[in-house]
Each structure stands twice: as C-alpha cells, then as structure tokens.
Amino acid sequence: MEITIKPIGFIESPFTDQDEVPIQPSFSEAFGTVNVDVDLIEGLEEIDGFSHLILLYYFDRAEEVDMKVVPYLDDKPKGIFAIRHPRRPNKIGLSIVQLVSVEKNKLLVKGIDVLNNTPLLDIKPFVPEFDIQGIEDTRIGWLTERFRKEEGE
User: Fold this and answer.
1) Could you tell me the CATH number of the domain that includes residue 89?
2) What is the 3-state secondary structure (H, E, C) of the chain?
3) Which of 22, 26, 47, 56 is most buried (most C-beta within 10 Å)?
C-alpha cells in the first residue's frame, strides 16, 4: 500500500541549521509562524480558542533512515522507535507548541523546534482532557536515569 500526503503549508522558524534546533519544544522559547495554505483557511476557524497546538510535520532534511541512533540526551545507540530523532522511516515529526496569535492563515507560535520552512502535514488542538488526562504510572524507559540525575536523586 502506498500513502500520499500533501503538505498543508510550512513552518517558519529562526533555525536554519540542524545544530541550532532545540531538541524538543519544552527546551525552546523560540517563536515561529505556521503558514497554512490559503485555500485551507476555513479549517482554522475557532483555532484561536486553544492555547496549544499539536503540529505534525515532515523532516524533509533528515538524513538517511537508521533503526538505531545515538539520541541527543545519551551517548549510547537506541532503537529509533524509543527516541524522538528525525532519522525515522516515515520522517514524521510532532511538536506541541503554544499558540500566541492568529492572523488569517498565519499562526504565531512559541516553543518551535523545527528547521525553517519545514513542511506542515497537520494541526490538531491540544486538549488536556484528551491528551494527558487519566494517564497514570507512566514510565520513560532509558530516560528515567537521565532525569533522575538532573533532579539530584
């Protein structure tokens, strides 16, 4: 089966080099602009009522696909599905960003963590009652040791 996905716009960011990009939105204070194709503007109706958005995008400048990669927060290779690295089989990225303002088809967001002119695949509203409510006893795998060290445990 072949799946074809057409970008719905692009994301502007201050980052032009992969080495500048924060590793996740929670590590970023940077602003960016989500540009949605003008012919899709109707789909943005009432988006301004949400404080945060989930952006799905395409890692168009990601290097080759690797099933094991050394992640940014460790020095040992991990399976690609156990990390959030761009060298994925389908090169799909996800970020949760803060929506600052909406002007026609342009969304100003804070916490951007993508390269400038990244193709946008979809936008979804972040809704805590859908996205995090009721998730208890979570585990974070190989990251557990890393974050415990940072907390001083």
Assistant:
1) 2.40.30.70
2) CCCCCCCCEEEECCCCCHHHCCCCHHHCCCEEEEEECHHHHHHHCCHHHCCEEEEEEECCCCCCCCCEECCCCCCCCEEHHHCCCCCCCCCEEEEEEEEEEEECCEEEEECCCCCCCEEEEEEEECCHHHHCCCCCCCCCCCHHHHHHHHCCC
3) 22
